[in-house]
Design goal:
Number of helices: 11
Order of helices and strands: EHEEHEHEEHEHEHEHHEHHEH
Structural class: alpha/beta
Distance between the termini: 15 Å
CATH class: Alpha Beta
Strand order of the largest sheet: 5-2-1-11-10-9-8-7-6
Largest sheet: 9 strands, parallel
Number of strands: 11
Strand content: 15-25%
Number of domains: 1
Length: about 280
C-alpha cells in the first residue's frame, strides 16, 4: 500500500508579495512536510525584488535546497509548466528543469502540453510533444527524475488525451501528475480518471473546487490556477486518498493547490485528519 504525504504548491503565497524563502518558512510553519516550488526561465522583477515566490532557473539550485533544509521541509517536485507543443520553448526549458531538480533535490518536475500553436494540426502537435518529451527524458532517466504530465490543456483535459501524451515516449521517467480540480472542471469524473492512471502516478495536485466555481465553469474550462481549501469544495478527499493508497506503485505526495495561507491552513487540517 502506497504512503500518502502532504505538501503544498507555493501558489498559496502568490498574493502575499513575499519571497520564495518566506513562503517555504510559512509552509513549514503550517505543518507541511513537503513543498512544490515554481521555477521560471530568465529573470523578472517581482521575484528578483523578493515580492514573488517563483525561482529563476538561472539562480543557484542550492538556493531552494538551503531554504528547505533551513525550514525542515522536503521537496515533492518542481512546478515547471511549459508548452510541450512548442519545442522551441519546451525542450530546453524541461531539460534545464530536470538538471535544476536533480541538483536541488526535487524528484519530480510537473508540466502539461500548454497552449498549442495556432497553425498546427492535432497530429502535428503530438509529433512536437513527442520530440520535447523524448529530449527531456534522455536527461531525466539517468538522474532519476520523473516528469509528471498534468491534465490542464486542450488535449490533456480528456482521459484519452492525457493517456496519449504520457505514452508518446517509452520512458520510465514519464508519469502522471494528476490534478483533481482540473479533471473535475473539465467535466470528467475525477475518481474514475484517477483510478485509470494511478499505476503511473508520480505526484498529485490536491486541488478542490468551490461549488460556486463548479456551477460557473465546469465543462467550460480545462483547468484553473488554484482551487479553494481542501474540504471546502466538491472533491471527496477520503475517496481520493483510498484510490491512491490502494493503487499507486510508489509513495505519493498530495501537493495542495490553493490561493491563500488561510486555505492552506484549512487544507492541511482536513487532509491530516483523513490520513490519521
Amino acid at each position: 500500500m502506497a504512503k500518502v504525504s502532504i505538501g503544498v504548491n507555493m501558489e498559496f503565497v502568490r498574493h502575499d508579495d513575499k519571497s520564495f524563502e518566506w513562503g517555504v518558512d510559512k509552509a513549514a510553519e503550517l505543518g507541511y512536510e513537503y513543498c512544490e516550488p515554481m521555477v521560471h526561465w530568465g529573470r523578472e522583477l517581482l521575484s528578483e525584488a523578493g515580492y514573488f515566490h517563483s525561482v529563476s532557473m538561472l539562480d543557484d539550485p542550492y538556493r531552494i535546497k538551503r531554504a528547505c533544509q533551513k525550514a525542515g521541509i522536503k521537496l515533492s517536485g518542481l512546478s515547471a509548466h511549459t508548452p510541450l507543443c512548442k519545442p522551441e520553448i519546451g525542450t530546453e526549458y524541461l531539460k534545464q528543469a530536470v538538471r535544476f531538480a536533480a541538483e536541488c533535490g526535487a524528484p519530480v518536475i510537473n508540466t502539461d502540453e500548454g497552449p498549442k500553436p495556432s497553425w498546427t494540426t492535432e497530429n502535428e502537435d503530438f509529433v512536437l510533444m513527442k520530440y520535447t518529451l523524448r529530449e527531456a527524458s534522455y536527461l531525466a532517466e539517468p538522474r532519476g527524475i520523473k516528469i509528471g504530465i498534468e491534465p490542464h490543456q486542450q488535449y490533456s483535459k480528456l482521459p484519452m488525451g492525457l493517456d496519449r501524451i504520457s505514452r508518446l515516449v517509452d520512458s520510465p521517467a514519464i508519469g502522471i501528475n494528476f490534478d483533481t480540480g482540473n479533471s473535475y472542471l473539465a467535466g470528467q469524473d475525477p475518481y474514475n480518471w484517477l483510478e485509470s492512471v494511478v499505476g503511473r502516478l508520480v505526484h498529485l495536485h490536491a486541488k478542490d473546487i468551490s461549488v460556486q466555481q463548479s456551477d460557473k465553469e465546469r465543462g467550460k474550462v480545462t483547468g484553473t490556477p488554484v482551487g479553494c481549501a481542501c474540504g471546502d469544495g466538491v472533491i471527496d478527499w477520503k475517496k481520493v486518498i483510498d484510490i491512491v493508497k490502494k493503487g499507486a506503485k510508489q509513495d505519493i505526495v498530495f501537493s495542495v493547490e490553493c490561493g491563500t495561507i488561510d486555505q492552506a491552513k484549512r487544507s492541511i487540517a482536513l487532509l491530516k485528519g483523513l490520513l490519521a
